[in-house]
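Ligand: adenosine-5'-triphosphate. Inputs:
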Amino acid sequence: MVYAAEFDPLCYPGTTVLINLLDIRDQAELDEVELALFLTRADEPLPAGELDYRHYLGLHRHLFQDVYGWAGQARTIRIGKASSWFCYPEHIASEMARVFRELGNPDRLADLDGGGFAKHVAHIVAEINAVHPFREGNGRTQLTFLAMLAEHAGFTFNADMLDRDRVIQAMIDSFVGSEAPLEALIEDIIRQSS
Ligand SMILES: Nc1ncnc2c1ncn2[C@@H]1O[C@H](COP(=O)(O)OP(=O)(O)OP(=O)(O)O)[C@@H](O)[C@H]1O
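Predicted complex:
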């Protein structure tokens, strides 16, 4: 998805196309190739880690390593979507540290029932979205991480329930103050493993 951005040294000069490892300069073609490469990486075993910020960066690096040289690194310019402007780049590291402190020990997620998990994790995903640590690939990293958290907690992540429009609307709602739609969405996509 193309961002409103300040002058961006990560783009080919005079364009909004991100400089990429494949040197594709057409946005539609880049979208298509980026998605295909992402899907291939998402299908591989995901990097192991502590479900902390370091792990989150490694996850983005894994998913987008074929497309962007900066995969796994936080952005350095301010970006926004529609009327939402995300965290100033200089505050990303401290804000992500705060969000992961709020997440707490991931092993404790297994103590929660579906409703409790959905409420807690909706808040965490909403906060990660409000920070938007990467120049591109935030939505896909968020959902992949959500699936990892669900599985870690013993839930099955029912990806078929992920309706793109519903996800984006829930994220926008969370940005403007209501986490309830995101919570309901998460509750719908997890089901207790037997
Ligand atoms: N207006 C908005 N306000 C807040 N968050 C938004 C808004 N529009 C989209 N989002 C969130 O930002 C994500 C998109 O971020 P980004 O483009 O970095 O991720 P992506 O993985 O490249 O794209 P996508 O999620 O569209 O496939 C969406 O998935 C949604 O979670």
